[in-house]
Design a protein that fits this description.
Layout (H helix, E strand, L loop, with lengths): L6 H6 L19 H12 L36 E6 L15 E7 L3 E8 L17 H5 L5 E4 L4 H9 L5 E4 L11 E3 L9 E3 L1 H6 L23 H5 L1 E2 L2 E4 L9 E6 L4 E6 L2 E2 L9 E2 L1 E5 L2 E5 L9 E5 L3 E9 L2 E9 L7 E4 L12 E4 L8 E3 L1
Parallel strand pairs: 1-4, 2-20, 4-5, 14-20
Antiparallel strand pairs: 1-3, 2-3, 6-7, 8-18, 9-10, 9-21, 10-11, 11-12, 11-13, 14-17, 15-16, 17-18, 18-19
Length: 370
């Protein structure tokens, strides 16, 4: 895949990439400070091992957050993914702080769009809901979710349908969904930003995707495994991730010691939801990937990028608790999980909790300050 691509190429192929690192509301939040103390204590106060021999931890955990679960039966249901508009005119948004996992994707060449995935809890409202992007298919396929959206260009919908074994797309005007309790209209919003999803109601409409994700999506540290940021982390008080041309439209994160989380910002200021809560996350994972501009996808207008992660490779930054590490990511087939490897060839181990995964360009100048 390279240059202008065909519909078939966009759906079936991806180019592997490599890039050198450039550095310059959930209802119950986990306690990163406690997990950090536990990691240090179990690794040994004097000299944490770079290659620990962890003890198997078989306690039940939420597959998308890695957090312990008292009653696994409460999560015996499919995850629900919802596409959420992230342009300034779509704000304030609903429900994002309840997501276990949030993917941040390009929308055009200067904006972002969110794909929020819910499994541990379902907020009443999520939105405003918008359309699918091709990268949603390889991002979501390992999770096997019910997928809330407002559809997409015909070829993208055909691509989604070709992978129906991995996700069940129930868009807002689909026959059998329109007019149900799964969607409603947000009052006082422009029509393009007026659709609201009710994820638990959408889940109940699923015909195929009814079971929980088969495996943890990310490499969580469990048992006495040591967090990678505890072993080899550098200070990361703030992160800035550029999306637009010439490093414009930067999203950002600032570490808040009081809550032990990263607070998110949009290019115009703090990322604040309709309920007045600041968007926050335990983990920030920046996956730099190649974008291919597909003019067909834009319908003759400005090109919209296709993010190439199938059979892909690139660099990543992972931040938690005020520290970060870097390494290389790889991904195989459409339904394969990401694999993350640090510079010393050890596997990445991240903290249980909520994660924002951002997908800027392969050469994005990610700026991390201490």
């Amino acid at each position: 895949m390279g240059g202008t691509i065909s519909r078939r190429a966009a759906m079936a192929t991806a180019i592997g990439i490599a890039g050198a690192a450039t550095v310059g509301c959930s209802r119950q939040q986990p306690a990163p400070a406690a997990s950090r103390a536990l990691a240090v204590a179990t690794a040994g106060a004097a000299s944490p091992s770079l290659t620990p021999s962890p003890t198997a931890d078989t306690r039940p955990r939420a597959p998308l957050t890695g957090t312990l679960v008292a009653d696994p039966s409460t999560l015996d249901h499919a995850a629900v993914a919802v596409k959420v508009s992230d342009v300034q005119s779509a704000h304030p948004q609903f429900g994002v702080n309840d997501a276990d996992l949030v993917f941040v994707e390009p929308n055009g060449i200067s904006y972002t769009r969110l794909c929020a995935v819910f499994h541990s809890s379902f907020p009443a409202d999520v939105g405003p809901v918008r359309s699918i992007r091709p990268v949603d298919v390889p991002l979501l396929s390992p999770i096997r979710p019910v997928f809330g959206n407002t559809a997409a260009a015909n070829w993208v919908m055909h691509y989604v349908a070709a992978h129906r074994e991995y996700l069940e797309s129930l868009w807002s005007f689909k026959s059998g969904v329109h007019g149900t309790a799964a969607y409603s209209t947000l009052p006082g919003r422009a029509r393009v930003h007026s659709v609201c999803c009710h994820p638990d109601e959408l889940r109940k409409l699923a015909r195929r995707m009814k079971t929980p994700p088969a495996a943890p999506y990310l490499p969580f540290a469990t048992g006495d495994e040591v967090l990678s940021t505890e072993v080899a982390g550098k200070d990361a008080a703030t992160l800035s991730i550029p999306w637009g041309p010439r490093d414009t439209f930067n999203t950002g994160y600032a570490y808040d010691e009081g809550s032990g989380t990263y607070l998110r910002s949009e290019p115009w200021g703090k990322h604040v939801l309709a309920d007045g809560e600041r968007v926050r996350t335990d983990n920030v994972l920046v996956v730099r990937a190649r974008w291919t501009m597909d003019k067909i996808y834009a319908g003759g207008g400005a090109p919209d990028p296709v993010v190439e992660i199938i059979k892909g490779r690139g660099s990543f930054f992972y931040a938690h608790g005020g520290s970060y590490v870097t390494g290389t990511w790889t991904k195989g087939a459409v339904n394969d999980l990401f694999q993350f490897t640090l510079a010393d060839d050890s596997p990445l181990r991240i903290a249980p909790g909520r994660t924002f995964l951002e997908l800027p360009q392969v050469d994005a100048k990610v700026l991390i300050r201490s």
